[in-house]
Specification:
This protein is α/β, with parallel strands linked by helices and 233 residues long. The chain is built from 11 helices and 7 strands. The strands form 2 sheets. It has a 4-stranded parallel sheet, with helices on both faces. Strands 2-1-3 form a 3-stranded parallel sheet, with helices on both faces. The protein starts with a strand and ends in a 6-residue tail after the last helix.
Length: 233
């Protein structure tokens, strides 16, 4: 059974589950894996914690992961990039594996060398500040570009609009404009490193290589389920 530790935000959690459903080669209900979703929107804000402006989400993340473990999940997927800053402290306290969305995404990027030597990152300010993508990619020789300070502030505000259910064409335009700016500065591809961004981003319109962390996490979860008899059985 796949466990989803969600609520960060709720719509992004729904997006991950929808993608899992679409990826499974199912002809009937029984072909799908069991999925246990715990959506806990009360987890403290990850960006505020990383920036030293709010309480740590670590306790709530551990408690939520343990709830999924007790519920019978065999693996946990967390559709929140910023929360992965805390993953090294969560994983040792949990008895089942936690999929590393950052690691999975970075491995995809590294496989694209030499076509991709520089990648852009669109993400919440906490993810950018924590440098979770930077550490993984730069150690593999991949350069990471992020928006300048005003651009990052626009990105974060737009992400919060998505969380509030108030995104519109202007929100989408901010995401696309910042992505195009990164490409203009030399990025050969762009990571959608916040699970809210795909909810207001048109991949077909982009015109450049996209690494969608939510989609990559869904693929990893489904691969695990298929390998462990959790689907089409």
């Amino acid at each position: 059974m796949i466990g989803i530790l969600g609520g960060m935000g709720p719509e992004a959690t729904l997006d991950l589950y929808r993608r899992i459903i679409r990826l499974v080669p199912a002809a009937r209900d029984q072909d799908h894996p069991r999925v246990l979703i715990y959506s806990n929107p009360k987890i403290p804000d990850r960006t505020r914690a990383i920036l030293g402006e709010g309480p740590s989400p670590l306790g709530a993340l551990v408690e939520s992961a343990r709830l999924l473990e007790r519920g019978g999940a065999g693996i946990i997927a967390i559709p929140c990039n910023a929360s992965h800053h805390f993953l090294p402290r969560i994983a040792p306290l949990i008895g089942i594996p936690i999929l590393d969305m950052i690691g999975e995404t970075c491995r995809r990027v590294v496989k694209e060398r030499p076509a991709v030597e520089t990648v852009g990152l669109l993400a919440a300010s906490g993810t950018v500040h924590a440098r979770v993508y930077h550490r993984a990619l730069e150690s593999a020789g991949i350069r990471v570009l992020v928006p300048d300070t005003p651009g990052q502030e626009r990105m974060h505000r737009a992400i919060m609009q998505v969380k509030a259910g108030a995104h519109d064409a202007n929100t989408r335009e901010i995401f696309h404009r910042e992505g195009s700016s990164l490409v203009g500065r030399g990025a050969q591809a762009v990571i959608l490193g916040c699970t809210e961004i795909p909810l207001a981003f048109d991949v077909e319109r982009a015109g450049y290589r996209i690494f969608d962390a939510t989609g990559i996490l869904a693929e990893a979860a489904v691969a695990w389920a298929l390998e462990n008899g959790g689907a089409t059985s």
